[in-house]
Each structure stands twice: as structure tokens, then as C-alpha cells.
Write a structure and sequence with these properties.
Layout: H1 20-26, E1 27-37, E2 40-49, H2 58-63, E3 66-73, E4 78-86, E5 90-92, E6 98-100, E7 105-112, E8 118-131, E9 135-144
Antiparallel strand pairs: 1-2, 2-3, 3-4, 4-7, 5-6, 6-8, 7-8, 8-9
């Protein structure tokens, strides 16, 4: 996840991007502990809405209603796993169009490749929504990424031809 350069100091205009910086502003992290996760050391925190936090946009409003657990790799400083649950309902467009019911959940995991690159491994979303004033339903989606492979290539001897110019016809 990318964090804009001035995001923590407030130099960047608020946006709807969900970044680690938004979680740091909107949530407080409690109950730190060490665990093993997928064979690696992890620092684990529970998180909950930060008291007195005033959201500046829709993403911050949503994150400010989440509770959950986050596993962080202390060496690479990467989020290994995140489990979040909506503690209270969330309304989009004042609740007239779509409302998310409490209990909506998200889980995501990343895996570390041999080269030290972290890539997504798993994402799961479980939502219960109310659409307009009448209908609604449940949305459950799981995505898994597997079989990552490292490829390398050699382009030392490749040369580009100079650009061809078109001749103008009178």
C-alpha cells in the first residue's frame, strides 16, 4: 500500500484512497503481541476506532467504523494479514442508495516471495447490504492468488532501430 509523502503531516489533500496512513489516523492500535504467522515472526495488534477522530472523506468514515486485527512483519514492515469487521452500519449517499449492515467483514493476506517482494495471497469480503429503501442481500467473495513465478530475461544485446519518418505526399 502506498502512502503519499505528506499524508501523515496533513500536507496532502484528503482523498478516498485507503492507505496505511488512513488506518493510522482513524484507528488506535491496542494489545500488541508477538505471534508466528505462516512461519514468520509477526507483531499483532487489535485495532478499533480512535476516539475523537473526525473523518475528512468517505474512506476515513468507513475505516473509522472498523474493528479488527492486523499482523505486521517486523523486518519488512509489511501488513501480512488484516481482518476487519464493521462495528456499526455505514450509509452511502445518506443511506438512500446503499447501506452496509454491521458485521460486514474483510480479510486479506500477503505473502513474501524469496526476493523480498510482498504480493497478495488472499482476499475475502462478506457484506450484507440494503439497496435503496426496499431490497438488499448478501455479497460474499473470495479471491486467491497462487503459483507466483519469478521470471528473468536478458536484454543486453537488444538494439532499437531509429524511428521511421513518414514522407509527406504533396
Amino acid at each position: 500500500m502506498l502512502i503519499p509523502t505528506g499524508a501523515l503531516s496533513g500536507d496532502v489533500a484528503p482523498s478516498d484512497d485507503v492507505t496505511v496512513a488512513v488506518f493510522l489516523r482513524a484507528c488506535e492500535f491496542v494489545s500488541p503481541r508477538r505471534e508466528q504467522f505462516n512461519g514468520r515472526d509477526a507483531i499483532v495488534f487489535d485495532f478499533r476506532p480512535r476516539p475523537g477522530f473526525h473523518p475528512g472523506n468517505r474512506s476515513e468514515s468507513l475505516i473509522a467504523k472498523l474493528v479488527g486485527v492486523v499482523w505486521i512483519d517486523p523486518v519488512d514492515k509489511q501488513v501480512m494479514r488484516l481482518e476487519a469487521r464493521l462495528a456499526e452500519g455505514f450509509k452511502i449517499a445518506g443511506g438512500l442508495l446503499v447501506s452496509l449492515r454491521p458485521g460486514a467483514a474483510l480479510a486479506m493476506e500477503q505473502t513474501r516471495m524469496i526476493e523480498g517482494v510482498w504480493l497478495p495471497r488472499f482476499a475475502q469480503v462478506n457484506l450484507s447490504v440494503k439497496v435503496l429503501l426496499f431490497g438488499g442481500g448478501d455479497f460474499n467473495k473470495t479471491i486467491e492468488w497462487t503459483d507466483y513465478r519469478h521470471f528473468s530475461g536478458d536484454v543486453n544485446d537488444y538494439k532499437l532501430d531509429s524511428p521511421k519518418t513518414e514522407e509527406k505526399k504533396p
